[in-house]
Amino acid sequence: MLPADCAGCGTERTQLCPACRQTLADARPGPTLLPWAHAAAPYTDPVRQLLLAHKERGALRLAGPLGEALGRAVRSALGNRAGAAPLLLVPMPSTRAAVRARGHDPTLRLAGAAARSLRRAGLDARAAPLLRHARPVADQTGLNAAERRRNLHGALTVLPRARRGLSGRQPVLVDDLVTTGASLAEAARALADAGLPARAAATVAATAVQPGG
User: Fold this and answer.
1) Which end of the chain has a smaller Cβ tally under 10 Å, C or N?
2) What are the φ/ψ torsions at residue 187 (nearest 5 degrees)?
């Protein structure tokens, strides 16, 4: 069921009110605590509520505006390299259990929406789910940055088919949210080990931004 009220602020009879849509559109992407990872907006309301509604409550129509914000973060992360080569947006993988519980893969859906947004802007972009979990990991809730890095080390791998038809594309990691950056760093390691080094990463939101960024 789609929410009857705005997922961002609760305004009645609209899933995304004009004010929240404008807040998302006006956000200025910039670097996070990882300089090579840019976020479209801080993880504060209404962006936080929009992401939670899309991810946990099945508000799938929010993928479009959230994907547009993610696309802007991709362009920000790449800078003048954005048009240098065709782009490959690689979403952070969800576990099978999480996909079953939610009924969809939110990050893959956002990656697809971002790729469409980038194509509308004249860039050659596609999304491909290249990563998968190689082993179980502990719940990250409550872990600090160092503990998250240890928890995730070696947790991701690249699907065997990943190299097919991807020659010449710039891999860009994408996710809905970056906190400590441990997940993006592990994903970057996995891609690099497979000979597909990510040039940058982009997220819709970040819990912290780089000082001065």
Assistant:
1) N
2) -65, -40
- 51 with 57: CB under 8 angstroms? no
Say if residue 65 is preceded by a cis peptide, omega within 30 of 0.
no
The total number of residues written for the chain in this structure: 213
Reported as a single tens digit per residue, the pLDDT across 55-98 is 999 999 999 999 999 999 999 999 988 888 999 999 999 888 88
108 SS3 class: helix
Residue 93 carries which DSSP code? P
DSSP of 12-28: BT-SS-HHHHHHHHH--
Provide the CA 120 distance to its chain's centre, in angstroms: 19
DSSP 19-88: HHHHHHHH---EEBSSTTEEEEEES-TTHHHHHHHHHHS--GGGHHHHHHHHHHHHHHHHGGGTTTS-EE
Q: How far apart are CA 174 and CA 127, in angstroms?
A: 9
Reduce the DSSP state of residue 209 to 3 states and report it.
strand
Residue 90 near residue 191, CB atoms below 8 Å: yes
Strands 125-127 and 200-206 turn out to be unpaired
